[in-house]
Structure formats: structure tokens, C-alpha cells
Amino acid sequence: MRGALHDKLAGGEGISLRKGRGFAFEGEARMEEWTPVRLIGMSGSLRRESNSNAVLETLRERFARRARMRICDLASIPPYNQDLEGEKRPPEVKVLLKAIAESDGVVLCAPEFNHSIPGVLKNALDWASRPAFASVMAYKPVAVMATSEGALGGTRCLEHLRTSLASMLARIALAREVIITSAGAKIRDGRLADPVALGFACGAVEALLREILLWRAFDSSNRWAAQ
Ligand SMILES: Cc1cc2nc3c(=O)[nH]c(=O)nc-3n(C[C@H](O)[C@H](O)[C@H](O)COP(=O)(O)O)c2cc1C
User: Fold this and answer.
1) What distance in Å separates the CA atoms of residue 217 and residue 227, rounded to the nearest whole number?
2) Closest Cα to atom 1, ligand 1: which residue?
3) Statement: residue 121 has pLDDT above 60
4) CB of 63 closer than 6 A to ligand 1?
5) Whose C-alpha lies nearest to ligand 1, atom 22?
6) Which residue owns the Cα nearest ligand 1 atom 29?
């Protein structure tokens, strides 16, 4: 059983996950309904022609057969206020947190702003990080990537994202670093068209899907063991 699971993970196939009791392995007659992976995409850019949102849109399309990615517009999220926690959260925040809670993973593709995370995204993450260590972000699998119009930007944003996500116990999927420099030149018709950058970005989402599959398998085997 363990060998079959390992083969499945190593092959990277069948990342869509089955509802109900775990996985059906080779030779197993019982077929269960497939549950596609649910992903939330966030960039923190509100710009209509945003490179970062174009990258998210490209990934949403690329992985459409294996995952449903909902790209969240963060324009309506108010500034974080610690007086408004729990039930007092603004309705827009409740909607965002519910969407994150119900997702299997999060894809963050952020532009570098002043050598860091755009305030809009950081603000959303601050809301999502509470209650501390037990929030919707705790143990949530996350893929991270950064964009920049410049030739050298993005690294600091990515580093700050990692630091911030670690503070809320989010689980960053292990992948090659994705920093899309000179991003505007790599976008055509609202999609990421540069094959090298696209390969890196897809690699991060692949890693995220594997992480999600791994945890689904773990949860599933735990449920079996508890019966
Ligand atoms: C307030 C602000 C600060 C920025 N700071 C940086 C920066 O530190 N490093 C960098 O590479 N680009 C910086 N830029 C350029 C952005 O990366 C660029 O505008 C990018 O296209 C914005 O992302 P978007 O296309 O997803 O909206 C900055 C842009 C703005 C508006």
C-alpha cells in the first residue's frame, strides 16, 4: 500500500483527489467521485493590467483540469484592525477567510513593492493570520512567487513573503524559487508567455499540488486508522 502511494506521488499523476475514504489504488475496483483541488490565488496588485494577476490567470488555466483556482480581488478588504476579530470581522474579510479555509492551498504571486510585500496582500494575510497559530493559514499549503518590472526585483518580496508565512505557520511548498523579472515583457495578451518563467511558475504549483496530495493521503489514512 505504501509503495503504491509513493509511486503515485513520484509520478505526479492524478493530483485531483477523491472524495470520501482516501484513494483507490491500482487494481482496486471501487471508484469514488473525484474532488478537484481547490486553490485560492492572490497577488495584492489591484492594477487592471497587473503582471502578477496575469501570471495567476495563466496558472489557473494551465491547471484547470486538475485544480480549481479562484483568484481573489483584495480591493474590498479593509485595513486590519485588531478590535475587529472573530465575529466582529468585516463581512468582506469573513468571505475571504472562509474561502481560504475551504481551499486546499493558496497560490501567492506578488509584485515587489518598495523591496517588500505589497501592502494590500500583507493586509489580507494579516487578517488571515488570526487567531495566531490557529488561523486559516496555519498549516495551509502555499506556493509563492514574485514579479517585478525590473531586472533585479522580486527577491526581497519573496523573502519577506516567506518570513511572513512562516510566522503564521503556513506550509510553503518546496520548489525552485519563482521570481519573474522584467515581467511586463513576458506577458502577452494577459498571459505569461515566456516559457522559462512559465516553467518555474508551473513547477511551484506542481509542488503545491503534491503537498496537498500528501496531506490528503495522510488525513485519509488517519480516518481509516480511527475507524
Ligand atoms: C509603490 C511601488 C513600489 C515598487 N517597488 C518596487 C521594488 O521595490 N522593486 C521592484 O522590482 N519593483 C518595484 N515596483 C515596480 C512593480 O514591481 C511594478 O510596477 C509591477 O508591474 C507591479 O505589479 P503588477 O504588474 O502585478 O501590478 C514598485 C511599484 C510600485 C507602484
Assistant:
1) 16
2) 113
3) yes
4) no
5) 111
6) 113
19: which 3 cell numbers? 472524495
Do the strands 141-147 and 179-180 form a parallel or antiparallel pair, or are they unpaired?
Answer: parallel
Which ligand 1 atom sits nearest the alpha carbon of residue 46? Answer: 27
For 56-96, how does the pLDDT look when each residue is reduced to its tens digit (9 = 90+)?
Answer: 999 999 999 999 999 999 999 999 999 999 999 999 999 99
Within 10 angstroms of residue 39's Cβ, the number of other Cβ atoms is 26
- The yes-or-no verdict on residue 160 having pLDDT over 50 is yes
Topology adopted by domain 37-213: Rossmann fold (3.40.50)
**Could you tell me if the CB of 111 is within 6 A of ligand 1?**
yes
Q: Domains of the chain: which residue ranges? A: 37-213
The structure's pTM equals 0.87
Q: Is 181 in the pocket of ligand 1 (CB under 6 A)?
A: no
For the chain, give the percent of residues with pLDDT over 90. Answer: 78
Per-residue cell: 86:
472573530
State the Cα–Cα distance between residues 156 and 141, nearest whole angstrom: 21
Nearest CA among 124, 106, 116, 17 for reference residue 69 = 106
Distance between Cα 144 and ligand 1 center (Å): 17
